[in-house]
Design goal:
2 copies of one chain form a homodimer. Chain A has about 190 residues and is α+β, with helices and mostly antiparallel strands. The first copy, chain A, is built from 9 helices and 8 strands. In chain A, the strands form 2 sheets. Chain A has a 4-stranded antiparallel sheet with strand order 1-8-3-6. A 4-stranded antiparallel sheet of chain A has the order 2-7-4-5. The interface between A and B is large, with 40 and 39 residues. The structure holds a DNA duplex (30 and 30 nucleotides).
Chain lengths: ~190, ~190
DNA sequence: CGCATTTCTTAACTTAAGGTAACGATTAGT
DNA sequence: ACTAATCGTTACCTTAAGTTAAGAAATGCG
C-alpha cells in the first residue's frame, strides 16, 4: 500500500530512500468500510484524506435530502474546508466503497515540511494543478446542459457511473435522480432512433 | 501599489524589510486598459496574474458566443491552466475594467522560492485555501437553482453585479442573458407583490 | 452630436427540469 | 429465504430555462 503512495509522489518529485521511509514511518494509513462516515456536518476536524483504494464522497443534507457534490477515488485527496477555517463542517464525508486512505493533519504537515521542504513543494504543485483543473471542471459545468454533463461524465469518468449509486451521480450533476433517469432514457432512445 | 501587495501577503506570513524589497524589486507590476486581452484561446503563456485593482475575467468562445466563467477582482489571482500543462489555452482572459496587476511566471517563482522559502509556504497555503473555497462555491452552484445562485451572488458579491455587464454575469451563473433578465424581473415582482 | 454597436428587456414558443407519487427492481440485513 | 429498505423508472403536471426574434436603452466612437 505504501508503494502506491510513494509511486504517486515520485511522479512529481524524486524521492530518496530516506524520504520514502519518512513517509511510511508516519503510520498514516487507515481503512474504512463502505458507509463509514469520516466527517459529519457540524463537526470540526483537522484530518485530510488521500484515497489509495476505494471511493469517498462529500455530501450535504439539505431539507433532509442528501446532495452529493464530489467523489474522490484512487490517487485523489481532499482537505475539508473546516480543517482550514476551523469552523464546523458544512458537509459530510463518507465511504462509497470499502476504502484505504492516508490521513494527515496540519501539525504533521508542518513537521514534515520542515524536515523535507520537497514535500511542501509537492503539496504546492498538487494544489495549484488541482485548482486549475477544478476551475476548468467548473467552467464545463457552467457551460453545459445536464445532458451534456452526463455524457461528459460517461466519457471522462466511466468508472464512477459503475461504482456509484445513480442518485448520487444525479446531485453530482446538479439535477434530481428522476431527471437523470429520464435523461438517460432520452439519450438511449436517441441512439437507437 | 507595492504596498497593497505586501500588506496582502503580510496577512499570511510576516515579512522582513529584505523580503518586501525582494518583492518590489521584481518589477512585476503591469496595468492594462479595459478590454485588453491578456491571454487568447489557443495561445500558450506562462504568465500568472494577481489583481491589485480592477477586474479581469476568463471566458470561452463556444459557437461564436462568449461564455464568461470567472471574475477576478482586487486581491484575487489566477494561474491559467495552460501555464501548468503547457498546452494551448482553452479560454481567453481579458480586462473588464482598467486594471493593475502583478504578472509572474514559473521561473521567477522557482527563483524566489529558493531565496525565500516562506513564499512557497505562502503560495501553498493560498492554493489550498482557494481550492477548498472553490469547492464550496462549486457545491453551492450544484445545489441551487439559477434564481438562488443569482440571489446568492447579490449577497456575496454585490460589487460584481454593479461593475460587470449583465450578459457576462448570466453565463457566470450558468444561464442565458435572457433568462437572467426574466429571473430578475420575477424576483423584483415577488418582492413588490 | 448622431450613428453604430452593444447591452438589456420583452414576448411567444419549445424543451427540459422540478415536484409528487406510484410501482418495480435491487440490495441489505436478519 | 424473506422482509424491509433503498434505489431506479415511469407518469403526470407545473415551472422555469432555452430559443428566436424584435425592439428599447445605453454606450462608444467618429
Amino acid at each position: 500500500m505504501q508503494e502506491l503512495l510513494t509511486d504517486f509522489i515520485s511522479k512529481y518529485v524524486s524521492l530518496t530512500e530516506e524520504e520514502k521511509n519518512a513517509i511510511t514511518s508516519l503510520d498514516i494509513f487507515r481503512s474504512a468500510r463502505k458507509g463509514t462516515i469520516l466527517l459529519e456536518q457540524g463537526q470540526i476536524s483537522n484530518e485530510g484524506y488521500f484515497v489509495l483504494k476505494g471511493c469517498i464522497r462529500t455530501y450535504y443534507v439539505i431539507d433532509g435530502e442528501e446532495k452529493t457534490t464530489a467523489f474522490y477515488t484512487e490517487m485523489e485527496g481532499l482537505t475539508p474546508h473546516c480543517v482550514l477555517d476551523k469552523k464546523p463542517s458544512e458537509y459530510f464525508i463518507s465511504c462509497v466503497e470499502d476504502s484505504i486512505m492516508t490521513v494527515s493533519n496540519p501539525d504533521m504537515e508542518v513537521e514534515i515540511f520542515e524536515k523535507f521542504p520537497k514535500f511542501e513543494t509537492l503539496c504546492r504543485i498538487l494544489s495549484e494543478e488541482l485548482l486549475a483543473k477544478q476551475q476548468i471542471n467548473f467552467d464545463e459545468f457552467k457551460t453545459s446542459s445536464p445532458e451534456q454533463r452526463y455524457l461528459n461524465l460517461l466519457q471522462k469518468r466511466p468508472d464512477l457511473i459503475q461504482r456509484v449509486p445513480q442518485h448520487q451521480i444525479a446531485s453530482f450533476l446538479g439535477i434530481t435522480p428522476q431527471s437523470l433517469s429520464r435523461l438517460r432514457a432520452r439519450v438511449l432512445a436517441n441512439i437507437k432512433g
